[in-house]
Amino acid sequence: MSDHILVDPHALERFVRHVYMDAGLSDTDAGLVANSLVQAELWNHASHGVLRMPWYWERLRHGVMSKQTKIEVLRDKGAVAVLDAHDGVGQVVAKHAMDLAIAKARTHGVASVAVRNSNHFGTLMYFTRMATQAGCIGFVTSNGGPAMAPWGGAKRKIIGTNPWSIAAPAAARSPIMLDMANTGVARGKIYLARQRREPIPEGWALDANGAPTTDADAAINGIILPMAHHKGYAIAALMDVLAGVLPGAQFLSGVHGPYHYDKRSGVGHFLTVYDIEAFMDRPEFDERMERFIAEIKSQPLAQGFDEIFYPGEMEARAAERHLRDGLKLPEDTWNDLAKVAQEIGQAALLEECRASSSPRANA
Ligand SMILES: NC(=O)c1ccc[n+]([C@@H]2O[C@H](COP(=O)([O-])OP(=O)(O)OC[C@H]3O[C@@H](n4cnc5c(N)ncnc54)[C@H](O)[C@@H]3O)[C@@H](O)[C@H]2O)c1
Description:
Blueprint: E1 4-7, H1 9-22, H2 27-42, H3 53-61, E2 72-77, E3 80-84, H4 90-108, E4 110-118, H5 125-133, E5 136-142, E6 164-170, E7 173-180, H6 187-196, E8 205-206, E9 212-213, H7 216-221, E10 223-224, H8 230-245, E11 267-275, H9 276-279, H10 282-297, H11 313-325, E12 327-330, H12 331-343, H13 347-351
Helix pairs in contact: 1-2, 4-5
């Protein structure tokens, strides 16, 4: 297992923003990508945090992800829009698409935006949370580079982990947020295990020969297994219909993940927003959500559990803790960031991220 470096999340966000500005992104776009990666760390989803910073940076350098995101509206018909992102930065594209879906949902009650030619945009709940902040329920799915075989297929991976997220406001509480890949775990968790030099649990993946493996490298080169057997495969396939087929994006083996620095991604997204006020008055929804969550949380505990969480609650709790105590980055992740810092002459800026005591004091 590798050691950890304790970092101040605010300083880390400043560093990542600087790296992307140096790579040619606008101040606003660089700030958004930095905020999304650090927010994933705060939520305890390090698999979609700053370990991806050097990957996106390489993709910008190779020109397969555009520095200036230019979004073209291909169709705009009532509650529906179709966008071509022309290889723009995934987070910038997803935020734009979500803003548009929220605006359209305000007019129509429900709205969907489909996106083609985008890039990997990190953690999905970053974007469904935007809908909750606008008084809406948000749904987002994206396809991704091949990770799993169709159920019954032997070796060839052709289906992405194709994550999906639904988030809703939860009265005075942090939003209720489902966000998951359709593989047993997000592929990023296998990359994270490799960074931490830890074995992966049995049942996550097969090696390139189709044999079960606990080795992260062998899993990355092999096949990731779907969640819940055939069901994970079936959901992933349908998410690809929404995010790949319908928007006119690449699908199945046509999509390239962020791990390929020299290939256009071709990834597609699909977002739907429901304006709560179109369905019922907001105070009534809030009162019902509070009762909904209270009933879940008040159930007797199973052996070995201290508390029942609603989806998204653990992430909110983790964010509070990390803002207070700092983030622990695996040494290998720190070293990857250090290589980029060195290349752009910003080693000192990265060093400023080290936190010795309370990071909040540095905010
Ligand atoms: N952009 C991409 O292409 C891509 C691809 C795959 C995954 N991802 C991201 O990876 C992240 C991790 O995905 P994952 O599938 O490993 O998620 P996960 O298994 O960690 O969590 C899945 C869901 O279960 C909830 N949950 C977990 N433990 C819980 C508990 N004890 N009680 C209540 N709810 C609980 C979480 O809040 C989450 O909504 C997500 O943010 C996802 O967006 C992104």
